[in-house]
């Protein structure tokens, strides 16, 4: 694939030819407006060992930086990815890092933080290794604690709704059938590895596979039972497990709790930058195979392949040089690019149901079911939903029971505040109100206006920063939060 930076010089006659060949409604890719990148960390040490692992004793010499840590090879892979990105976005990005132009966020793991830095060293010459000390500039990588990371790591383990969805997948006939076919294999694997594979057989099988793949990648001899056949079966088992996590049934609802959150963030990063006219051009997310898999699940693109180290998915937003007649004002397209192999050009991915490049409106429409609903998704209490008032309506509903009066014109410290109450705070506040002051004095006035009472002075401290209002209109909903357990 041509790199965008290099196009446009010799394109004249070719473009004309292309125009003649294109079906009338096809969009032409215009100039790049915005890029979001999500990549997996580079090569790392295995995450774990198993009881009969022949290399177990030597682990501290084999992996001097520790299990799960980025290796030298991993650093090299990220540098290479960064250099590829520099070539691809040469004409798009400024030659040097500018903080208002590029934002980098990583999960809070050594290997992803280091990967981000190595990548940036490839992307920006002034952060490159060996650049003269006087010119060297480090580049910031942002993160949040793992327990608070809703964007790149998903709180699946602690999410009851997700467990329900997962159970539905693992109880499905095709899953059970596949599992049954592997019973003997898993029993043998248990014997070979000394692992107990009851309980979470697939997860443990995946860990064994991970250990073997890491060891093989570093030239270590695998035990004789770990034949190519066994490795192949292990990766099929692992794909079954992944499919249960990100695929059907109810893939979209699973995505709302996982990869759809990131997808939503990427779309809002773009639209925010556009609508506010920000100079932001690129967001980079340094994360894990699970992040990419969840994203693929949300896009309906999971195909059984696990993203290799330093695999990178790019969302390229472009102005389109022509407006299609049927979609009003649709002048932006989204292209998905997947780089999972350094020896060939990156793959353009096609979102099911949309031509590539996909008009943004169509893309938003197609991915809407996989993105969290405006009212927020279960297990994401502090997730910043794009339509905040509903959080307020839940508070309101809990406080009053029954019918929900959703007020979009309530008094608050700042109507432009984009900070919403965390669910635990809402709950606390509601309980307090229910116990001590079901309706305060000014509630009648506000009730007439369809507004929930202001938090009292007592409870305002918990909510002060989270009092959410937006101006403009007022509406009434029945059972706004019905059906979605906000557990
Ligand atoms: C595997 O099975 C063999 C034969 O039944 C037994 O001798 C061996 O101890 C088993 N290994 C493990 C790790 O359970
Ligand atoms: C991207 O979107 C997420 C979710 O809305 C937000 O937390 C993050 O700050 C945004 N990043 C930038 C650089 O705008
Ligand atoms: C797309 O059209 C909207 C109005 O319809 C305009 O505000 C925006 O700047 C346009 N964007 C591009 C990239 O042309
Ligand atoms: C890259 O991804 C594509 C699409 O998922 C897949 O067909 C291909 O086998 C992958 N290649 C590597 C090296 O992982």
Automatic annotation (TrEMBL):
GO cellular component, one term: postsynaptic membrane
One Gene Ontology term from the biological process aspect of the record: negative regulation of neuron projection development
UniProt-listed Enzyme Commission number(s): 3.1.3.2
Region called Disordered, residue ranges: 414-487
A family per Pfam: His_Phos_2
Family membership: Belongs to the histidine acid phosphatase family.
SUPFAM superfamilies: Phosphoglycerate mutase-like
The species this protein was found in: Peromyscus maniculatus bairdii
Segment forming the signal sequence: 1-28
PANTHER family: ACID PHOSPHATASE-RELATED, TESTICULAR ACID PHOSPHATASE
An example Gene Ontology molecular-function term: acid phosphatase activity
Reaction(s) catalysed by this chain's protein: a phosphate monoester + H2O = an alcohol + phosphate
InterPro entries assigned to the protein according to its UniProt record, in alphabetical order: Acid_Pase_AS, His_Pase_clade-2, His_PPase_superfam, Histidine_acid_phosphatase
Lineage top rank: taxon: Eukaryota
Record's protein name: acid phosphatase
Swiss-Prot/TrEMBL keywords: Glycoprotein, Hydrolase, Signal
